[in-house]
Design goal:
By secondary structure, this protein is of the alpha+beta class. It folds into 4 domains: 236 residues, TIM Barrel (Alpha-Beta Barrel), CATH 3.20.20.80; 73 residues, Immunoglobulin-like, CATH 2.60.40.1180; 74 residues, Immunoglobulin-like, CATH 2.60.40; 134 residues, Toxin - Anthrax Protective Antigen,domain 1 (Toxin - Anthrax Protective Antigen, domain 1). It is built from 13 helices and 34 strands. Helix 8 packs across helix 9 and helix 10 packs parallel to helix 11. It binds ligand FHN. The site of ligand FHN has 6 residues, from loops.
């Protein structure tokens, strides 16, 4: 009987193990697992595979590429990526199953485990539901390729920890789903077949793995026994699988911002990955130098080959540093069936031009559906972008940033001796002005119809291209200009110096071009080819207007630049009988949102202070203080005064309001200048505080003194 009962118990155990979803995953061939049961961390079991994660990671001979790589080697490694300019981002995983929805809330997506506070034990129930029967790697890669995208970055593992490939070190992967096909394997093979570069996004943060810390604040899952270093070993073992098994061209890290990750670990991880594949490219989120959504902070200090602005385009690019803007087509990275806020084709194509004109790459995201298909809107946009790229891709691939500081009608890119003008706003008069273009183009034509030349002529302000009545493209029309050598452009002329001066000043003039001469006048007339030549900063000793014009081969080019200058008359010194150190002050209480007319008020207190000192206030809010006395100018010359205050303030010297910093505001710095004769000058400071922060600092700068706080010994009453 006992023997019979034992057999029954064993059978019951086998049946129970076969039933539960999570247990089903444990049933597959053994792996040194990151356990699916979320309750407790466990040391990876010794598996049938040859090495444990720790042994696999330890077998990698890590070299310090950050120190050893030369600029030439770096540039060579980055070349294909820089030329590519355009890639597809794909956010896909278990989170596609709920499609952004949870208990009636419909704004979730790839963060749903956290944003809906779904316990891991619940979340893993999406595993048996993930069955993308319509997934077609060939179709996905073809859509990317036809859209002009040269690489694909897909989430091998997002923050939820689920793996889209057949991992040896966890059962929490695609092979535990009914689909049982290695998504990354199929996509990688298709990319290799179609000539698109396969790249992986990999999240450092892992909400599933029991050794990852910190836990989410709302979780009940114990962190007892969790070993973050053991998690890092697990992550590195997976990265070794991915690099050795799939040969990705870029590793796009993310989820680097939690306190458990550090610059030290980031540097180690960068070198580890490079040691596995020396020519791989790694983004800067491997380390902690991302700088939030701006995508880069102190590039020299942190590891990573390129910056990663997210959902934004840096206004002037990131000069001297590789960068890639990643952006969604709608408002979510992962699939959200309610999110119909898709960007227009015009917006996407103009963003593509804008990013390239600033020297960056564009990583445009798709959030596939749980059945393995792309959203219809995404497919339509990819088709429109592909059509545009077919006609205009030359103006994008392999180009470098625009040489123009800004263009009112669009953007520009450059490739060798060819310049591409990306026209967003087609001029109604059919005349496209290219300011500051000096070089004569050999050929000018629409990129979409190179067989039809366009006419161009040159005027002072630059070049003017005659355009057909209708734009070549409904979104961005691209015009190519071919030159014999790299085209030369002059920037707008910049005139330095300060508008008010005393007694004289040397004014620098700059236009960024070495092959033009700048000629100038001081009598208000427009410079001509007989006007004085600019050779060094221009001595200005009188009030007047400086006009500058660039000349090439004695022909004026670019716009005339001008600046008014005013030679100040020093304020005569005042007489003060028996001056004593310090200032008089009057203290008022009341509610204002601007400086009041103090003549109409009765002060609540009065006295003397050493300096512009707020300590005379009797409460922190709804107060005002007026300081009056004399400032001692140690020499005749130009004095600049600065007021930094919260809330409003004003500074008068003599009876002249030199700085007006009035109004309700946070700490705000303003300044103003005046010429003073050596000696004493009346000075009056007015300040009011409504509520909140309170501060006031008064600085000065004189012919012999750099900007600093007015010392007590220069103040008298
Ligand atoms: O948290 C992720 C987010 O889900 C998405 O993956 C983006 C894409 O760059 N990165 C993080 C947010 O910065």
């Amino acid at each position: 009987m006992k023997r019979f009962m034992n057999i029954v118990l064993v059978l019951l155990f086998i049946v129970s193990v076969l039933v539960s979803p999570a247990a089903a995953m444990r049933n597959r061939p053994k792996k040194p697992d990151a356990p699916i049961t979320p309750e407790k961390p466990a040391a990876p079991e010794v598996s049938a595979t040859p090495v444990t994660p720790a042994e696999a990671v330890a077998s990698v001979m890590v070299k310090d590429y950050l120190k050893s790589e030369t600029p030439e080697q770096f540039n060579s490694r980055m070349q294909w990526w820089r030329e590519a300019r355009f890639g597809m981002f794909i956010h896909w995983g278990l989170y596609a199953v709920p499609a952004g929805e949870w208990k009636g809330e419909t704004r979730h997506a790839e963060w749903i485990l956290t944003t809906a506070q779904i316990p891991v034990s619940e979340y893993i129930k999406f595993v048996p539901q993930f069955n993308p029967v319509n997934f077609d790697a060939a179709a996905w890669v073809k859509m990317a390729k036809d859209a002009g995208m040269k690489y694909i970055v897909i989430t091998s593992k997002h923050h939820d920890g689920f793996c889209l490939w057949d991992s040896k070190v966890t059962d929490y992967d695609i092979m535990a789903t009914p689909f049982k096909r290695d998504i990354l394997r199929e996509l990688t093979d298709e990319c290799n077949k179609q000539g698109v570069k396969m790249c992986f996004y990999h999240s450092i943060m892992d909400w599933h793995h029991p050794d990852y810390l910190p836990r989410r604040g709302w979780e009940k899952r114990s962190a007892e026994g969790a070993d973050f270093q053991r998690y890092i070993t697990y992550m590195k073992a997976q990265l070794k699988e991915l690099i050795e098994g799939y040969n990705p061209h870029v590793l796009w890290f993310d989820g680097e911002w939690e306190k458990t990750w550090s610059h030290e670990e980031g540097v180690k991880l960068y070198n580890y990955v490079r040691s596995l594949k020396p020519d791989i490219i790694v983004n800067n989120r491997v380390d902690t130098g991302r700088g939030g959504m701006a995508g880069v902070h102190d590039a020299k200090k942190y590891a990573g080959d390129f910056g990663t602005p997210e959902q934004e385009i840096p206004a002037t690019g990131i000069p001297g540093y590789d960068w890639e803007t990643c952006m969604t087509m709608n408002r979510h990275w992962g699939w959200n069936k309610h999110d119909k806020n898709f960007k227009s084709n015009e917006d996407l194509i103009q963003k593509l031009s804008d990013i390239a004109s600033k020297g960056g790459n564009f990583l445009l995201n798709i959030g596939p559906k749980p059945d393995g298909t792309f959203p219809e809107e995404s497919i339509r946009s990819l088709e429109a972008i592909g059509k545009w790229m077919d006609a205009n891709g030359d103006g994008l691939y392999g180009t470098t940033a625009s040489k123009f500081p800004k263009l009112s009608w669009g953007r520009s890119t450059t490739k060798g001796n060819t310049m591409y003008l990306h026209v967003f706003d087609w001029p109604k008069n059919q005349k496209l002005t290219v300011p500051g273009l000096l070089s004569e183009a050999q050929k000018v034509y629409l990129a979409s119809s190179p067989e039809k030349p366009l006419t161009i002529h040159y005027e002072n302000i630059g070049a003017v291209i005659d355009l057909p009545a209708k734009p070549a493209d409904p979104y961005v029309s691209v015009i190519a200009l071919e030159f014999k050598r790299p085209p030369e452009i002059i920037r707008e002329i910049e005139i330095g110096g300060t508008a008010k001066f005393y007694p004289a000043q040397d004014v620098p003039v700059e236009c960024g071009s070495k092959t033009v001469q700048i000629r100038y006048t001081l009598d208000g007339t427009a410079p001509d080819n007989q006007s004085p030549l600019y050779q060094k900063p221009i001595r200005i000793e009188e009030t007047g207007i400086l006009k500058c014009q660039a000349f090439k081969n004695n022909r004026p080019v670019g716009a005339v630049a001008e600046k008014q200058f005013m030679r100040l008359v020093p304020l005569p010194a005042a007489y003060l009988n028996a001056p004593k150190p310090g200032l008089n002050y009057k203290y008022y209480e009341g509610k204002w949102n601007m400086l009041p007319n103090f003549e109409t008020l009765t002060p609540a207190a009065a006295g003397t202070v050493k300096n512009f000192d707020l300590s005379v206030k009797k409460r922190p809010e709804h107060i005002a203080i007026v300081y009056s006395g004399y400032f001692k100018a140690n020499e005749t010359g130009l004095y600049t005064f600065y007021l930094d205050s919260d809330d409003g303030s004003r500074l008068l010297v003599g009876d002249n309001c030199i700085v007006n910093n009035d109004g309700l505001h946070a700490p705000t710095l303003k300044s103003g200048s005046i010429a003073l004769e050596k000696g004493l000058h009346k000075i009056r400071g007015e300040f009011f505080q409504a509520t909140g922060g309170i501060m006031m600092d008064v600085y000065y700068q004189s012919p012999k003194t750099e900007k600093k706080q007015i010392p007590d010994n220069l103040l008298f009453k």
